[in-house]
Amino acid sequence: MSVKVKRVYEDVEEGEGQRVFVERLWPRGISRQDERIGRWLKEIAPTDELRRWFHETGDFANFSKKYRRELAEREESRQALDELRSLLSEHGTITLVYASRDEEHNSAVVLKRVLEEGR
Q1: Nearest CA among 66, 62, 114, 68 for reference residue 88
Q2: How far is CA 75 from the centre of its chain?
Q3: Cα-based torsion angle of the residue sequence 36, 41, 45, 48 in order, rounded to the nearest 10 degrees
Q4: Fewest 10 Å CB contacts: which of 14, 32, 44, 114?
Q5: Which domain holds residue 19?
Q6: Does residue 30 come out as left (phi exceeding 0), alpha (psi in the -120 to 50 range) or beta?
Q7: Phi, psi at residue 77, to the nearest 5°?
Q8: What is the total count of domains within the chain?
Q9: All residues at 6 or more sequence positions from 70 whose CB lies less than 8 Å from its CB, including other chains
């Protein structure tokens, strides 16, 4: 089983499995029928408050800790995480799709680590 991360604006490639957009806000310039987004699971995204805090501070280490806490404590986040685990089990590979320009410091990267640690 494998978890990948990819920016929504990149082309779809073979072997990406089930693609899941994991942001709370829909990406600019992408239609709702676009093949680059297979499924939208906005419940897994950080809360608006945490997202705004991260954009203001740029503190990825603390963002990661706070986001992990949200994933553990918020009911809708736990359910969405269970859904991602189910998709991973069903498809063998999932690609967490995100909109951020920063490929190393975003919520999808944290989510990938959480999923990999949970195996």
Answers
A1: 114
A2: 17
A3: 100
A4: 14
A5: 2-117
A6: beta
A7: -70, -45
A8: 1
A9: 46, 47, 50, 77
Residues 6 or more apart in contact with residue 43 via CB below 8 angstroms: 76, 77, 79, 80
In this structure, what token pair is assigned to residue 66?
Answer: 């706070």
The structure's pTM equals 0.92
pLDDT tens, position by position, 55-72? 999 999 999 999 999 999
The pair of three-digit structure tokens given for residue 4, joined into one six-digit string: 């990948």
Kindly report, residue by residue over 69-116, the tens digit of the pLDDT.
999 999 999 999 999 999 999 999 999 999 999 999 999 999 999 999
3-state secondary structure the chain: CEEEEEECCCCCCCCCCEEEECCCCCCCCCCCCCCCCCEECHHHCCCHHHHHHHHHHCCHHHHHHHHHHHHHHCHHHHHHHHHHHHHHHHHCEEEEEECCCCCCCCHHHHHHHHHHHCC
Tokens of 9: 């604006």
